[in-house]
Design a protein that fits this description.
It comes from Paenibacillus gansuensis. InterPro entries: DoxX, UCP030066. This is DoxX family protein. This protein is mainly alpha-helical. Helix content is 76%, strand content 0%. It has one domain.
Length: 127
C-alpha cells in the first residue's frame, strides 16, 4: 500500500476512535447515564452541564465527519481539544487517579492525530 492509502486509513481509524467517539459520550450525557452523572457530582459540576456538553459533543462529531465543512471542522476540533484537556485538568485537580486523568488524554491524542492526518479536502484553505 502506498503512503496516501495508509494516511487515509490512519485518518479514519483515529477519527473513529477519537472525535467520532463523542457520539457515544454525547449520548451518555444526554440520556443521563449513571457514569457521567456520578462524575459530575464527584467533580462538583451541575447536572445540567451534561445536556449542554452532550449536545456539543454530538454536533462536533457530526461536523468532523460530514464533507465540505472545513471551517466547522476547525471549530469542532478546537472544542474537542478544550473539552478533553479541560477534563484531564479537572480530574487532576480533583485528585483523581492517574488512570482517570489519562483517559481524556488518550482521546485527545487520537483527536490530534485525526486533525493532523485529515485529507486536504477536509482542511481549511487559507487565502
Amino acid at each position: 500500500m502506498n503512503q496516501s492509502r495508509w494516511r487515509t486509513i490512519a485518518y479514519w481509524v483515529t477519527t473513529l476512535f477519537g472525535p467520532a467517539s463523542f457520539i457515544i459520550g454525547g449520548t451518555l450525557f444526554l440520556t443521563g447515564a449513571e457514569q457521567p452523572v456520578e462524575q459530575m457530582k464527584h467533580l462538583g459540576f451541575p447536572l445540567y452541564l451534561l445536556t449542554i456538553l452532550g449536545v456539543w459533543k454530538l454536533l462536533g462529531a457530526i461536523a468532523v465527519v460530514i464533507p465540505r465543512t472545513p471551517l466547522l471542522k476547525e471549530w469542532a476540533y478546537a472544542g474537542f481539544f478544550f473539552h478533553l484537556s479541560g477534563a484531564a485538568a479537572v480530574h487532576a485537580l480533583a485528585g483523581d487517579a492517574l488512570s482517570v486523568i489519562a483517559q481524556p488524554l488518550v482521546f485527545l491524542a487520537l483527536t490530534i492525530a485525526s486533525y493532523l492526518l485529515r485529507p486536504a479536502s477536509r482542511r481549511l484553505k487559507l487565502q
